[in-house]
Each structure stands twice: as C-alpha cells, then as structure tokens.
Amino acid sequence: MLRYAGSVLPIRPKSGLFGLHLTTSKNIVEMVEEREATPLERDRILREDSVGRVDRRREGGELQLITYRFRNFRLIRYLVNWGRMASLFPVHLTTACCSVEFAATHSSRYDPERFGWLPATGSLRQSDVVVVEGTVTSKMAQRVRLIYDQMPDPKWVIAMGACAISGGLYAKDSYNVIQGIDDIVPVDVYVPGCPPRPETLFEGILLLREKILYGRAL
Amino acid sequence: MSTTIEALADDLSAKFGQAIKSKIVDKKIVKIEVGREDITAVAKYLRDNMGWDHVKAVTAIDLSRATKKEDRLEVIYHLGTYSRADCWGLDLAISCRVEKASPRMTSLTDIWPSCEFHEREAFEMFGIVFENHPNLKRLLLPDYWSDIPPLLKDYQPPGR
Amino acid sequence: MTVLEKREEVRKIEIYDTGEAPLTVSYGPQHPGTGHFRMIVTISGDTVVDVEPDPGFVHRGEEKMAEYKTWITNIPHLERPVILDSAGIQYPYVLAVEKLMGVEPPERAKYLRTIMAELQRLGSHLYWFALYGIFVGHATMFLWCFTDRDYIVDLTSLIGGQRITHAYFVPGGVRNDAPKNVPRGLLREFNRYYRMVTGKELTDKHLEFRKYVLAVCEFFDGRLDDYWEMFFNSEIFIHRARNVGILSQGDAIRLGVVGTTLRASGIKYDNRVCNPYDAYPNLKFDIPTGERGDCYDRAVVGFKEMRESLKIISQAVEMMPDGPVKLKQHPINLRVPAGEAVARTEAARGEMLYYIRSEGGDRPYRVKISPPSFRLLPAIAYLLKGAQIAEIPPIYWSLNYWPVEADR
Predict the structure, then answer these.
(1) What local confidence, expressed as pLDDT, does residue C329 receive?
(2) By CA distance, what is A171's nearest residue in B?
C-alpha cells in the first residue's frame, strides 16, 4: 500500500538490514562521516512526507489539486503518524545529571505515561526515541552513536539539557566533553535547562509528538 | 597514644627526625612532608603503631606555577582512622615531592589497600608511576587519550 | 591481581564447572540497572567470577575546570557531580574556603545550611530507595519515593530557588534567606496530599515557613512507617537482600568504605558527629548502625538515617536564630589568601573530602574532590565477586554508588 513505510522525518545514513546496523564500534567513525541529511533535504522530506499544515506545491509553482498518489493520501499517513506518536518508547540514556529530572518526570506528579510514553527499561531494539540526557563525554560518545544505530527506524532524538545541546556548563574548559550531540546524532527536539524542569521536558515530549504527527512543530 | 594532633606530630618527629622535611600543623590542614625514600616506613609506622588504617584521598599537585616555583609534583595522602575512635575528628596528611620530569614513587597499596583506585587516578592525571601497584591502568580517561596527563599545568583545555 | 585476591580467607568462592569458558559480559553504560557506569563482569554459570569496574563515562574534568574559574563561579559547576545532593558537595568546598579566609558564617546561615543539607539528604535517600526498589523488582517503591521526593524538592526550591541545583552556599554564608511565608499554592498542593494520606487538614497558620516545615517533617515521619511496612518489611525485599553481599567490619576498614556501607558493617562513624561542623554540635540525633553488613542492613540504615534527618530538620528550624545570612555583600570578586585547607563533611552517600590550595589569587590553584562513591569502588569489585547474577542489582544498588560523583 504505502510505497515506503519508513520514517517521516529526515533520512539516516545508509540502512543495514531492516534498518539495523550490525557493525562494531570500529566502524563508528566511518558511520559518522557518512552523509546525514542536510537541512535542505530535511525540509524537503518534511514537506513531502507529512500531512496537514504544510503546503504542497509542485515544482512548477502551482498547487497540485488533482490526484495524489496513494502514498500521499493524507488519512493513511495521518493514522500511521498518529500511531507512532501516541506510543513512544523512550530509551533512558543516562549520560549525566539530567537523568535525575528524567526520572522525576516519570513520577506520578508529571506523568508522561498518560501520553503513551512508557517506562524506559526496555530493550533498545524496541524503542523509538532516545532521550540523550546530560553531558556526553568522549568515552560515552561512542556508545551514544552505537545505541542510536542499534535502534530500528523510525527513531527520533531528544537532546535534553544544556550539555547535550551545546556542551552547556562544560563548553569552554573541559577536555573530555562533546560540545553538543549534534555532531553525533541528528537531533529532533532540544530541551533547554540545566537541568530542565520536568515541565520543560514535558513540553519537549509534546513538541516531539506534534512534530511526528504534522511534520513540524514550531 | 597521642590523641591531639600536635602530640601526634611530635611523636612522628621524635621517631623519624631527619626524614621529615616540613610540617604544617594548624586549624586548616595538618600536613607532614617526608622524603620519597622514607614514606613507606612512615606509613607503616602510622598504620601499625598509631592506628591510621585507611586513606581518604590521594592528591597530587603540580607546583610549577605556584608562587614558589619548583619543577616538582607533590603527592599528598590524606589519612583516616576507623578503629581509633578518639582520632575520628583529626585530619592527617603525609606528603612527598617527586620530580616532574619522570615522576616515580613507591605505591602504598600493600600498606593501605584503600588507596588503590586513588593512585590509579593520580597516575593517569599526572603521570606519576607508582611502583608495585597491583593494577596501574587508566581509570577515568578514555582509552584513546594520547595527550599529556591533563591535570598538569602545562596542559591547556581545548576551549582556552 | 588486585586487592580482590585477599578475599579468599573470608569467603569461599564456589565456581561451578559448567564445562565452558567463563563469559565476559559488559554490564554497560546504557543499562538501566547501573546507570552511566560499566562493569566488565566475568561469569561462569550463575556465579560472578571477576568484576572490573570501568568508570569514566561521565568524567568531565571538574578538577581541571576548577582551576580556571573563580571561587564563586566554581560553586555551580562543582555542585553538578552529585546533582541530587548538591548541598552535600558544595558544603566542604565552602567550609574549606572559609577556613582559608579565616571567617565564620553567621548563626542563621549555619542553620540554613544544615537544613538544606538534610533536605537534600532526604531527597537523595528517597531517590536511592526508588531505584533500589525498582531494580529489585518492587515498582511501587519507585513511584512512592518519587511522589514524596517531589514535596521535599518543593521545599528545596522554596529556600534555594531551584529544584536541585540551587548553588545556595557561598563562602561566608548562604545566598539568600528562607522566606517568611510559604506560597499559598504550595500549601494547597501539599494539603491535597496531606488530606489524602492522613485525613487531617492544614490550615492557614501553616503558611508560616517554620510551621510548614514542621508539618512536612511530621507528615514524612508517619509516611516512613508506611514505607517500612510496604518495602523494608516485605518478604520480597527481605528474601532478596538478606545475607547478600556481606561486608565484614575488617573488610570495611581495609577497603576504606564510607557512608551507609560503613555504618551497616558496624562502625558508628558519621562526620556530623565525629567531626562536627556548622550547626550540628547543637542538634541531637542518633547514628544508626547495622550488625551484619549485608544489603538489608544497608537499606535499613539508610531508612533510619531518613528519620534522623527529619529530626534534625525539625530541631534546626525551631532553633534557627534571626540575623544576617551572609558576611558582607555578595562575595563576587573574592580573593582568598594563600594556603592549603582540608574540609570533610558527610554528604548523603558518605564522607566527602575537599583539599583546596590557593595561591592568593581569584581562582583556586588546586581543588581535589574525594567523593564518597569513588571510595566505594573497591567495595563494588570485592562484593560482587562470588555473587550470583541475580544478586548483582541488590548489591550494586545497596552501596548507593553514583557514577557521576565518582567520575567528577
């Protein structure tokens, strides 16, 4: 039915079998140098593969109103996206201190489970979202990339905390900290804060859901 | 057995007179500096006769940018005691200085097993080789660290 | 050929011959059971033969960074290692700097610091038990502990301004005073919970800060009884944790462990009593100890410590005098005279030691942090050897090892 039941959002490096990368950490450097989608390509894919609020124009510039190909039929695409966003399984990638606020977000006061965001103690192969919380050191960066590659498509990344966005508090003087995980994995939602309050992380989760459903959230 | 820190320091001076290079005994810190060759004997005496049975921290300082510049590293062992309840409130530190160019020192792990991981960290952060250490390997830095030991004053972090 | 070898005289390690070579498993950094810490575990059958801890995944270079930042700007980033108990890691830093400066904070500041440290100790212990519970299989403990911890963290954010990383301590006192009155919204929120659990109501007179804190302490004292029935006295936990991971007194001294582990092995050592600082000499509280040194004892000692913390907070908030909370104006351009100082306090996980050397400038020359988790590393290696695989979570979590703190 659908031409390609893959991700709605930006492309990944060349997929292995079923989207899994069965490789060792020796090849991590090569993977990182493989081409990820440039921002323009990401925009194009967002525009073409999403539903709803983005306008669709043909190359010529006129609005195409006649027939959509079946894969662009909005209802199916909407249902698929709705299914994906309503049952996100996160990977609790504790890299440093933000894990405390991540765990606090899963408490009963700020309860993300009502949004389908199930508790994060499952296997990597069954998860959708990786929430990179906290500072990523160079020793951990290898593992972050490995974890990201082990997850099957479709997958998303939330960068939680100032250290994951840009190095944060450790941006200038630390010899062992990666300045933002942008260099390693493609990030979808940035959640600022040091550490972000549970409400902020919640806003990040809701933005991600909106992005999955509609193709863009802000 | 002496219970105040001054009495303790005097005990040590009495026994190891010439080995002790300097001492600081005041409210902020109690530090007794010994020569590199004598530190094992002093440590054994402290453990057996005075009951200081574990090491709380092993610090190393690079003295090359201090006010009194020397081309040496100072290694400080902060000691503690759990068996002598009267000494629980006292902080004692013994230290020795080693050359910065190729720092070597005897490990005190056979006297105090609790300093094993601390000495490993001092090894990777300053390059001090502790002889007779059971497992002198890298602890905290990543495997591919190929620069000079980071806590030396000559090392500048990349951002600066 | 590490210190583990000497273990043989204490416990016989039974290794069943399964006919295969031992399997090396990386209990890795992405494992909800360990957090950001890696253990290279060699197992044979169901027994752990060897464990090599591999810390360093969160090594951010705090000690090197401390030499590049001024005395005051060091505080926010030095509190990040133990983010849960950030008062516990700021405390010895400010004490050591005050020793170097030769000043003493005003009385009210001492009490406020004590209250903050004990609140964070409560928060840290609740977090510890939450994770201990869920990795032993008791998910209710996770949810209860986090719910209750939120009310403690509300108090912390009321006094300090932020939930956990408040940078509340400065050399010479604390940054700002506690408020006189609690916001009405906070009282309403806590009242809802209070009413649900106890059936009584909080009135407007609890808007005063002192009365609110006393009400919270009393409430949590009652709540701890519920915890005892639900978790610490439940068959699941007792069977999982009794006689598991026994650390004898001689071994505890030899390995130099700290904190709950030390007290559970029978040594009644607590820096708040043995080496008192700030307002602790004026407060009356107990030090709980255990007899056997197994995982159950460690948990029970932690539980009793929570009760003692509540006692301390209630006493301190009653005895707190009025007055200034800082020495003079906020010490931004602080210049600390040259010298060296050592300070030790009792953080939530154990004894934290700071060694600071100053050369008279506006930044430290050397800051050495000796966190409690780093001193528990030999205990991890020692206790896990010879255990069954199913005993790894109880042993690991009973030590209350926090990797971020050990790596700095």
Answers:
(1) 66
(2) B159
- Candidates C61, C100, C353; nearest CB to B150: C61
Nearest CA in chain C to B151: C64
The confidence score (pLDDT) of residue B39 equals 85
Give how far C210 is from chain B: nearest CA, Å.
32
CB pairs under 8 A between B and C: 116
Contact A175 B142 (CB under 8 A): no
Cβ contact B117–C65 (<8 Å):
no
Whether B91 and C344 lie within 8 Å, measured CB to CB: yes
Contact B28 C375 (CB under 8 A): no
- The structural domains of chain A, ordered by start, are 1-218 (3.40.50.12280)
User: Which pLDDT score is estimated for C313?
Assistant: 92
C274 closest CB neighbour out of B76, B89, B151: B89
Assess if residue B120 is contained within a domain.
Answer: yes
Of residues A171 and A119, the one with the higher pLDDT is A171
pLDDT along chain C (408 residues), means of 10: 38 60 81 79 84 88 88 88 88 91 89 92 92 86 89 90 88 88 89 88 86 91 90 87 85 89 89 86 89 89 92 91 80 82 91 90 90 90 85 88 87
Per-residue pLDDT, C10: 43
Nearest CA in chain C to A179: C60
Q: What is the mean pLDDT of residues A190-199?
A: 89
pLDDT of A36 reads 56
Contacts with B113 from chain C: Cβ below 8 Å: 3, 6, 254-256, 378
- B145 lies in some domain: no
In a domain, B69, yes or no: yes
Give the span between the Cα atoms of C242 and C263, in whole angstroms. 16
State the chains in contact with A (3 or more Cβ–Cβ pairs under 8 Å).
B, C
pLDDT above 60 for A9: no
Q: Which residues of A touch B141 (CB under 8 A)?
A: 139, 176
Which residues make Cβ contacts (< 8 Å) with residue C58, sequence separation at least 6? Answer: A95, A96, A134, A135, A137, A140, C36, C403, C404, C407
Q: Give the pLDDT confidence score for residue C118 in this predicted structure.
A: 92
Question: Percentage helix, strand, coil, to 5, in chain C?
Answer: 50, 10, 35
pLDDT the model gives residue C117? 92
**What are the φ and ψ backbone dihedral angles of B110, each rounded to 5 degrees?**
-80, -15
The pLDDT score that the predictor gives to residue C224 is 92
- Inform me whether the C-beta atom of residue C184 falls under 8 Å from chain B C-beta atoms: no
Q: Report the residue from C59, C355, C407 with minimal CB separation from B76.
A: C355
Indicate the pTM of the whole model: 0.85
Can you spell out the DSSP letters for chain A? Answer: --S----SS---SSP-GGG-----GGGHHHHHHSPPPPHHHHHHHHHHH--SSS--B-TTSSB--SPPPGGG-HHHHHHHHHHHHTS--EEEEE-STTHHHHHHHTSSSS-GGGGT---S-S-GGG-SEEEEES--BHHHHHHHHHHHHHSPSS-EEEEESHHHHH-GGGTTT-SSB-S-GGGTS--SEEE-SSSPPHHHHHHHHHHHHHHHHHS---
Q: Domain containing B47 — which CATH number?
A: 3.30.460.80
For chain A, what is the mean pLDDT?
A: 72
How many structural domains is chain B composed of? 1
Buried b (16+ CB within 10 A) or exposed e, A10-31: bbbbeeeeeeebeeeeeebeeb
Where in the sequence is the domain holding B123, given as residue range(s)?
5-131
Residues of B in contact with C341 (CB under 8 A): 28-29
Look at residue A218 in the predicted model and tell me its pLDDT: 54
Question: What CATH code is assigned to C3-407?
Answer: 1.10.645.10
DSSP annotation of C357: E
Residue of B nearest to C277 (CA): B89
Question: Given an 8 Å threshold on Cβ–Cβ distance, is B56 in contact with C341?
Answer: no
